[in-house]
Amino acid sequence: MGIYRIAEICLNGHVTTSLADTMPQFRENYCSRCGEATITKCPNCYASIRGSYDDPERLHLPKYNRPSFCHNCGKPFPWTERSMQAANELIASTGKFGELELTQFKTDIDSLMKDTPQTKVASFRVKTILGKVGKEIAFGVRDILVDIVSETAKKAIWG
Ligand SMILES: [Zn+2]
Ligand SMILES: [Zn+2]
Questions:
Q1: From start to end of 8-140, where are the E strands?
Q2: For residues 88 and 97, what is the distance between their CA atoms, to the nearest angstrom?
């Protein structure tokens, strides 16, 4: 049986260390990549952010994937919210969509991050939207979303 170490991540989502408790020398008060403050606890419920899974029976730590949601309270982390916001703004900036479509896009992005029965439907709708916005915006949205959407959504939208 292993345990989860504590991760330190900046508000924009850069992982400064996934071993904040065992390797404090790697900690950064401010992210060295973007200058944003770092956190080790969920801002909503103060539970420690899960870091690397440390299993004494394994020699190597598995690759660390930053979580999108708090395992304790289920709220999206700041970087998840910022990515969602950025994707929404990018789509809105095209001026091609009405209020209803933009609201639907927002809801769909939320579904893309979770593997739920809605994920496939949402992926289809997002793919349709991306087909209408032109390459530059579509690539921009992909760059933002690729780190936060589920594997199922990734495959459904980008193959
Ligand atoms: Zn950063
Ligand atoms: Zn929480």
A1: 8-10, 15-17, 38-39, 50-54
A2: 11
Neighbours of ion ligand 2 (CB under 5 A): 42, 44-45, 47, 70, 72-73
Task: Identify residue 112 by its one-letter amino acid code.
Answer: L
Residue 152 Cα to ligand 2 midpoint, Å, equals 25
pLDDT tens for each residue of 53-109: 988 888 777 789 999 999 999 999 999 999 999 999 999 999 999 999 999 999 999
Place of tokens 């530059």: 136
Q: Residue 19, Cα to own-chain centre: how many angstroms?
A: 19
Q: Please tell me the distance between residue 87's alpha carbon and the centre of ligand 2 in angstroms.
A: 23
Instruction: Please give the distance, rounded to the nearest whole angstrom, from the Cα atom of residue 13 to the centre of ligand 1.
Output: 6
Question: Tell me, what amino acid is at 159?
Answer: G
User: Are 119 and 109 contacting, i.e. CB atoms less than 8 angstroms apart?
Assistant: no
Whole-number Å distance between alpha carbons of 119 and 116: 5
Taking ligand 1, which is a single-atom ion, which protein residues have CB atoms under 5 Å away?
A: 10, 12, 14, 31, 33-34, 36
